[in-house]
């Protein structure tokens, strides 16, 4: 069975974020680092070359495929900020309706800049997404 492409790498989160070329993406990445670290209480780690993740969970599909993934995370990509783990939990639809300018797709939340969204609502989405993945779906 194929191995999961996106795995924790042990690379430096600080070095990755310092190397983000676009100044707004770098600034927003540093703010998301602060927000997600504070909300989750987790140490950030790199997943693949471009995703900063917080916390872990183990998944196993009916097909037998299984692996580990970050509970929540983000990537300051060229086109937009990609945020992971925030669109599935209870109440996510209501929060997304109040978030501000964004789009969703393939399990991701895309934001052009943090200035486009309500940070209090984003904080609630991070908290709810993290709790949903780590305690509601994957409780021991």
User: Biggest β-sheet: count, sense, barrel?
Assistant: 6 strands, antiparallel
Name the structural class: alpha+beta
Total beta strand runs: 6
Q: Judging from the principal axes of the Cα atoms, what is the shape?
A: globular
CATH architecture: Alpha-Beta Complex
Low-confidence stretches: none
- Count up the domains: 1
- Counted by DSSP, the helix tally is 4
Strand neighbour order, sheet with most strands: 1-2-3-4-6-5
| Backbone CA Rg | 15 Å
Order of helices and strands: HHEEEEHEEH
Q: Please give the alpha-carbon distance between the first and last residues.
A: 26 Å
CATH fold-level label: Aspartate Aminotransferase, domain 1
The helix content is: 25-40%
Outline of the structure:
The protein is of the alpha+beta class. Helix content is 36%, strand content 26%. A six-stranded antiparallel β-sheet has the order 1-2-3-4-6-5.
What is the secondary structure topology, with strand pairs?
Layout: H1 13-18, H2 23-40, E1 44-47, E2 51-60, E3 66-76, E4 81-84, H3 92-99, E5 103-105, E6 108-111, H4 119-137
Antiparallel strand pairs: 1-2, 2-3, 3-4, 4-6, 5-6
Helix pairs in contact: 2-4, 3-4
């Amino acid at each position: 069975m194929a191995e999961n492409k996106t795995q924790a790498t042990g690379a430096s989160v600080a070095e990755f974020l310092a190397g983000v070329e676009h100044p707004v993406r770098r600034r927003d990445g540093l703010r998301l680092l602060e927000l997600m670290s504070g909300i989750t209480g987790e140490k950030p780690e790199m997943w693949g070359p471009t995703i900063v993740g917080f916390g872990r969970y183990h998944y196993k599909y009916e097909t037998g495929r299984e692996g580990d993934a970050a509970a929540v995370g983000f990537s300051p990509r060229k086109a937009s900020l990609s945020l992971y783990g925030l669109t599935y939990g209870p109440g996510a639809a209501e929060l997304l309706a109040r978030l501000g300018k964004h789009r969703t797709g393939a399990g991701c939340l895309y934001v052009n800049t943090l200035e486009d969204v309500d940070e209090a609502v984003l904080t609630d989405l991070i908290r709810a997404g993290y709790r949903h993945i780590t305690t509601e779906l994957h409780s021991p």
